[in-house]
Amino acid sequence: MKTKATTTQLDEQSKQLIKATIPILQEQGTAITKRFYQLMLGDHPELNHLFNQTNQRRGDQPAALANTVYAAAANIDQLEKIVPHVYQIAHKHRSLNVRPDQYPIVGKYLLLAMKDVLGETASDDIIAAWEKAYGIIADLFIQAEKKLYEKTEKQSGGWAGFRNFKVTQKIKESDVITSFYLQPKDGLAIPDFSPGQYITIKAEIPSEPYTHLRQYSLSTSPGKDYYRISVKREAGDSQTPKGIVSNFLHDFVQEGSILPVSAPAGDFTLDLNDNRPLILISGGVGVTPMMSMLETVIQEQPAREVVFIHAAKAGNFHALKDRVQAISNEYDHVSSYTLYSEPEKEDRCDVSGYISYEWLRTILPATNAAFYFCGPKGFMNKTYLILKQLHVANTDMHYEIFGPAADITAS
């Protein structure tokens, strides 16, 4: 899918005014977006369900929006450069059922927040220029999402919005991760998906004033009559709020429960046209899309060399390890490695500690390979830097951070 980005509707004076705001956005971007969410959700509380409240409290969501606004300003002459980022977000918006009539609301409060935070610095001319630019950028998102909605609804078994699924199995995979097997309540077909994609769960929690939407990676291969998600319980601590939805799923959702689900989405997907060695690297619950990719590649490319690397705190935190080991034992081209940062006495692992350049270079069959990695942001930052040390090309690195989009390359 391609969307042609154009700024032909934007006059040169407006472009220059937006460029002039780039240093301000670098310094005040997150303050603007924090104020944006306060203003918008204060006047439109019905939109709370679209936003992860935990990410709001941690500041992840405002920071991600600030990055998007900054990228738009920095590329105002060549918006085609941000189209890949647009499609990444458009997949999430389609999964959340974001609609075109919500964009004017966002635009209104984004401009109000700019004016509120920047004061006299945000002159009428600057606000007018940003209003024009926002209209063009919003149209990029709307057109991209329109294509995704149409594609989703037209595919075999596809649907719009949310569809009720029944939990047919609930299986504890580790001390913190549980798998949920989901089949459509109506008994009709479901669409295939690309390994690495996710679904959105709509959690209707009696104690909560709003519904909560959460995206979870599918943790098995496509082609089945069910979807599987493997969810980590986010217990929270003094620094991080407790996960509302993950705890709801673990504590209250049982076999037989009904959950509204959106169709699979996401652009972090395995390229099955690539026959080079496949390196799958995960940390914690980042194992879930990696499992989908592993299960798929042994079916579709059984002769392809695969290295599966997983990092966890200890054995009791390591989900899906038996299945990975079984695949590694059965397929000669698949090798698996485990790293535990705090192993127990009975744990068996390849590395006691963290992933490192020195260790990784000794086990890789080649650096001319396809690298996919997923996990917590700190893990992702370190993995990215190690792969750069190994001279892996940027085009061969594919990654996803759970939560709002973040730039790990800036670390």
TrEMBL record:
One annotated GO molecular function: metal ion binding
Its EC number(s): 1.14.12.17
Name of protein: Flavohemoprotein
Cofactor remark from the record: Binds 1 heme b (iron(II)-protoporphyrin IX) group per subunit. Binds 1 FAD per subunit.
Recorded domain comment: Consists of two distinct domains; an N-terminal heme-containing oxygen-binding domain and a C-terminal reductase domain with binding sites for FAD and NAD(P)H.
Reductase as annotated region, ranges: 157-411
Class of enzymatic activity (EC top level): oxidoreductase
Globin domain span: 9-146
Gene name of this polypeptide: hmp
Keywords per UniProt: Detoxification, FAD, Flavoprotein, Heme, Iron, Metal-binding, NAD, NADP, Oxidoreductase, Oxygen transport, Transport
UniProt source species: Virgibacillus pantothenticus
Residues annotated as catalytic: Y103, E145
Site features described as Involved in heme-bound ligand stabilization and O-O bond activation, chain residue numbers: Y37
FAD-binding FR-type domain ranges (all copies): 160-271
Function (record text): Is involved in NO detoxification in an aerobic process, termed nitric oxide dioxygenase (NOD) reaction that utilizes O(2) and NAD(P)H to convert NO to nitrate, which protects the bacterium from various noxious nitrogen compounds. Therefore, plays a central role in the inducible response to nitrosative stress.
Family matches, as Gene3D superfamilies: Globins, Nucleotide-binding domain of ferredoxin-NADP reductase (FNR) module, Translation factors
BP GO terms, sorted: cellular response to nitrosative stress; nitric oxide catabolic process; response to toxic substance
Protein family: Belongs to the globin family. Two-domain flavohemoproteins subfamily.
